[in-house]
Amino acid sequence: MTDTSVPLTTKKDWCTDQEVRWCPGCGDYSILTAVQMLLPELGVRRDHTVFVSGIGCSSRFPYYMNTYGVHSIHGRAPALATGIAVARPDLDVWVITGDGDGLSIGGNHLIHALRRNVNLTILLFNNQIYGLTKGQYSPTSEIGKVTKSTPFGSVDTPFNPISLALGAEATFVARTHDLDRKHMMETIRRAHDHRGAAFVEIYQNCNVFNDGAFDAILGKEVRADNLIPLVDGQPIRFGEDGRLGVVMQPDGRLRIAEVATVGEDALLIHDEARESAGLAFQLSHLASGPYEPTPVGVFRAVERPTYDGMVQGQLISAQERQGPGDLATLLASGGTWEVA
Amino acid sequence: MTDTADAATASEIEDISHVVIRFAGDSGDGMQLTGDRFTSVSAAFGNDLATLPDYPAEIRAPAGTLAGVSAFQIHISDHDILTPGDHPNVLVAMNPAALVANLADLPRGGTVILNADAFDERAYAKAGLALDPRQDGTLDGYAVYEVPMTSLTLKACEPTGAKPRDAERSKNFFALGLISWMYTRPTESTLAWIAKRFGAKPMVAEANRRSFIAGYNFGETTELFDHAFEVHPAPLAPGTYTNISGNTALAWGIIAAGQLANLPVFLGSYPITPASDILHELSKHKNFGVRTLQAEDEIAGVAAALGAAFAGQLAFTTTSGPGIDLKAETIGLAVSLELPLVIIDIQRGGPSTGLPTKTEQADLLHAMYGRHGECPVPIVAARTPSHCFEAVIEGVRIALKYRTPVFVLSDGYLANGSEPWRLPDVADLPSLAVPFATEANHLNADGTTTFWPYERDEKTLARPWAIPGTPGLEHRIGGIEKADGTGNISYDPVNHEHMVKLRAAKVAGIAATIGPTAVDDPYTVAGAGAGPGGRTAGRTEAEILVLGWGSTWGAITAAAGVLRGRGRKVATAHLVHLNPFPSDLGDVLRRYPRVLVPEMNLGQLSRLVRAEFLVDARSYGKVQGLPFTAAELETAINAALDAVPAVSAVSAVSAVSAVGGAR
Questions:
Q1: Which pTM value belongs to this model?
Q2: Is any Cβ of chain A less than 8 angstroms from the Cβ of B287?
Q3: Which residue of A203, A234, B341, B605 is most buried, as measured by CB atoms within 10 A?
Q4: What is the ipTM of this complex?
């Protein structure tokens, strides 16, 4: 959609004069670049754009975006952003969060923003570690993770952010990673264009406290056989020359198969708009972690009325029904009597 | 005090000046509804009145038990009154548990009206009684009227065809009818109300109507009561009145503030007793553009409100003590972001879950200090149910003018209590409008201009409110310490101290706009003169100053009035602003040889004024989940006059004066 009243911008217009202070080599840099390159293409206005974050390395993001921005408190960005979006449906509101901020201390706000379908674009940088507090395990760290706070290995089962978002009734759920700018830009563009709560998990490398967390699937040599691109309406197929694919077994479970063995027609066709989230949930569990073939792209994209839109609708219909509020009438509405 | 039972003359209707009636029954008996209805009729009749609902936290505790007793007290009078009454004159008890739970409050000689049908062995057992309280001397000295309310209600409802179990539920209307006859209340409005309220269920409406009339006729035709009483209308100031509870006044004050500020109202809230009614009321008024968000928790409620404030709306969050605990971190963020936000705390008994349905004033220090770091938040407190309207408008004024979160404190007693309120003329309400920033505000050395989010107004120290959608004013703010002016992240030690002091100075500076302490002192020495702005300055012959805040206003004022009548020289002062204090408060306190601070806590305001002004303010606390009675305060003030020697107080005062030097 092109709005001719929106001034044309370049990446530079969306950058601030603040020195970017992530560690050299951090995956956050490439995400920042992808977003700064994408925004000029979206035809949106800087003054109508708000970035909201919580606490953590990723949450410094708003300081580097030349838009309106709030760097809030730990875990609360979805709640604060909900207030902004409900108050002002005319704004483009982004939430930048991480695996600790969004899934641990702020898990409750995240799931409720998703179930309400508030018009927010939520980018969750998942590096499977606490970086800002210098290296404790996070709710997405694999079992057995040895960190400063878990010297004998963590013993709790991690969250799968995609499964969690689907379980929270999210209308748009996607995954991308920090090594593929084009895929990031395309995925985030889709998320932005979605009306409602859009959730994007971004695999992001923390080269200081959890370096190489995604090497098993993102390494140059292994990537083709370990990233499963989800393309709407297409068979789910990957690997060198598309030799591998996803099929559904007679018992309803998904598995990876050689296309040569099962035949092309056996491959599952990806349908992101399927009403039931069941198959998307199964896809999200195809890999038990980022060390075996893992789907990326849009898992689910369905239309549902937005919370902010419906709130607005109730205001309008109340005014149509009752007329604009009159204070004197309100004060007298409980029954009055006169004293002469 | 006129006691109905002592009124022995056998005229048909006896005039009395006032009466306190308490309706008590099981949680399921509809006592709150009965009380509300009696209140509305009395208000419309023109009495002055004050009410005190008292109900358990359990929605339906086991029937017939002491834990399940729900009561509603109303004080009606033909003159200006300040409290719901220290003690009832009449107790209506629907079962034995209601009788024994409330009898201790009824002085001997008072009137007891019992539902005789509810008195049987099973009911005694449920109420934990070994014997029939009517036979064991418990009721000696009371005027007891036994009325078979259940059976008369069933009889009255027979023609409706309602099943006995359903018809029995109308017995509260029988009680209402009976008391309406006793106190000569008009019946038309209650009948109209029944028809409207229960219109969708014609059989229930008819059962309630018949029960109400049966109760009224029972009073008129039986010889049980020899006459009725009348409490004439009170000579209130001319105007249009409504009966209003504190929570409704707060909700309407919020809507009014939105209109006066010309801003859309946003409420982020999570249900909690006793604040939920504000959320309910505001949710009804969407045609005023009011957005209400029932959040997933207390934190999200205030966070969403803060987001709405950033986006340019008039933002509120409503809660009680446990919610304030959870919101503390976000309130700190609001202090750092310097955005307008009004936090409404309907205080209840604590700590922890405490007494959810009972009142207390023990969150003052929490509002004052309950956040990490140096984190000043202005505090405004309401003193009566109707004053909640003004208090929240004042809170909004401060929040908008100074771009700061503000606490508005109410409590369970104000929230659910009600009183007649003379409606303000909407045209007389002050404008609260403040401008949004529209352009760059900082002149750079090279002659260009930039927008600095923390460039302050020289007078108020408020920063500009630049909302998204304003081209050229894009900016980023957050909870990390900011460089003065630019608002950029700064860890500079000296800048941090500067910013901490700036935020403190901004809040302290609010005192310039709040006027002098409201002192009621008839003993000011003539000729000492009123200072500028009509403030009471100079010497006084009063023996004591009773300093209060919040809902203790009625009881303090009533007690002081009685004591003055007995020749004790009692002055009072009541604070609406708790942070900052009025700038003359120290001078006022030092003027008196004794200062007594009654509070529904263990001494919170007293601690603040002692620390701030080095005066020997004595605390008088009560934490029983119930408001002070005027009689309790009479005793406390007398005790303070006897126990605290003025001499030592004066020497302390002079020592302070010496230290204070040129005050």
A1: 0.92
A2: yes
A3: B341
A4: 0.97
